[in-house]
Amino acid sequence: MKKSLLKPLTFCFIILICVISLARISMPQTHKETSNAKPKETVVKKTAASFRPYQDPSDLRRPYNWRKSSELKPYPKIKRLENDITIRVSLKGNRVYILRNNKRVYTMLASGGIFKKGKSLTPTGTFKIQDNRGESFYNPNLNEGANNWTSWDKNDVYLFHSVPTKDNGKYNLKEAKKLGKQQGSHGCVRLSVPDSQWIMNNIRSGTKVIVKNN
Question: Is 30's pLDDT higher than 80?
Answer without folding.
Answer: no
